Amino acid sequence: MHSAGTTPRPVRGVRRLKPVLTTLTALTVLTSLTAAGAVPATARPDPSAGDVAEARRAVDVREQRLSTAAAGLADARARLGGLVAAAERAVEAYNGERVRLAAAERAHLAAAERQRASDAHLAQARADVAALAAQSYGGVDLTRPMAAVVAAGGNGGMPGYLHQASVLHHLSGGRAEVLKRMRDAQEVATILRAQASTAYTERREASARAEAARTAAQAALDRQRAQTAAIEGQVRDFEDRLDQARSEADRLARERAAAQERAALQRDQATVGTVPAGGSGSGGSATGDLAADWALAQLGKPYVWAAAGPDTFDCSGLTMRAWERAGVRLDHWTGTQWTSGPHVPLDSLRRGDLLFFGRITSNPGDIHHVGMYIGKNMMVHAPQTGDVVRIAPMWRDDLVGATRPG
Q1: Span 12-34+274-403: which CATH code?
Q2: CA-based diameter of the chain, in Å?
Q3: Is the pTM higher than 0.85?
């Protein structure tokens, strides 16, 4: 947000002036940027063409290694597929054994219940036999039937004999039935006991099979997880190494390009010396030149969010440090840098002036980028993550205005 008297936003026709101006063309146009030696050389050693080529070769080598490893990784993934299938089979085998174990447990419980009922029936039959053995009828020992008949005949004559004989007949038949029930109960109990024993054995075996299946399934899953982790680790390792090589090669290429830009600027300054007055390439004040020269000395240093030097910068961190060298304090924020110093028309720019990009609203955060004017419609700025401090054309669709700190 700017106060009364500040420069209004330029019309689109002005902002679109020479929109396709490239950095290379701009460097050619920069034939006069202050006196010779105004752009100090960086202390960082500049990468040579051989350094860049060697870095590119390292990328090629790692790409070849990654390609060679791809076949091995494909085989490993195929083995992993087999391990997954084996694990699934082991898990389902365990599930099947659990079903069979549940059936065996039910069968064992049923057999045990039948055995308990049979044992109770046998116990009752044995009790009946024991009672029968001790029983007598009318003082007659049932174990001596003939003596009982004779005794009955002597006491009651023939009618008494017939009566006693009839009683003995029925008692003998009942005794036989009791004994038969006991023998039957014994046979049934023996059969059911054997069935219960068999069911118990089957339950134990089913339990052992289920436990073995569970162990096998867990082992298969562990192998699968270990193989998966190993394969993923190999892939990450290959990709990380390749990314590192590419990043290093890109960094060297950017630094070399920045070094070439610096060299071109130094040659142009040595040849021409000063720039003519005017908006497209006016000279700066002593403080503006000092700020611009210091900013140009940072060419090639990486952009890092929230950084303000000495080895990395973001956009407002670069401009803050540059004007700090000129004795002017700025905040590390485009929002307040936009209101620090008077706004100047874009056709009256001087070296060191700050160029702002974004939108002018009530929210200062909508101005999101700042660069420093260095002449001939060019600026030095820290662009974005993954890039470095570099020179670029000032004309962009989101250019909103300029200020002159002081």
Answers
A1: 3.90.1720.10
A2: 168
A3: no
